[in-house]
Amino acid sequence: MKPVRTLISALVLGGSLGLAVPASAEAPFGNQADMEMATSLWALMEYKGLAGDNAVMTRPYKGVAPHGMILELIELPVTLHGHTGPLIVKRNYGGDGISVDDVINDPERYLQAVTIMLKREPGYDADNRDWFYVKYDARGNVMKNPKGMPLAGRVAKGMQTGCIACHRAAEGGDFVFNHDRYK
Ligand code: HEC
Fold this sequence. Notes:
Keywords: Signal. The protein is of the alpha+beta class. Helices cover about 25% and strands about 20% of the residues.
């Protein structure tokens, strides 16, 4: 039996869209499909040496808020569930007064989060250039916002703060800040 509240919201939502779908499937992020995608993507990233214990180290650099004091950035195309698109992986390191050398010497100690953007199939989020966002902890668990919503998917579409709201400001309208770094 579904809880009454879910059933009612499903009916209201289903009614307004002309669809009989559960409300959770409509959430722009943190829904079941997003979580499954985030899990497969982490496995792919581990396989490709982009995350996890055998992750390849790149040259870290000093970052700016909100992503952390020291960052690493990797961009490459990946194929997941039959679609190929660019994946941007950002490793976020933090800790009191850490330097680039501290991170190079002991990355695991300072890794606080792995934030990614994956370009999905056209129409996934046409208003926002079809990016899929995830914020993982160092072990690959999807992190949550203060309201307890998992940070995976179109985060946080329609809201005034969050990945999309901020990345929308990137120059050139591609939602990627680092593409404008050397301008
Ligand atoms: C308050 C603004 C802000 C928010 C919120 C934000 N970012 Fe960013 N993000 C930035 C800035 C600025 C950069 C570029 C500077 C840097 O390298 O940190 C960036 C860089 C990135 C990059 C590297 C690609 C790029 O745009 O240069 C990824 C991947 C990324 N963010 C993921 C995320 C994810 C996932 C979230 C949400 C969980 C998020 N960001 C939330 C501001 C933000």
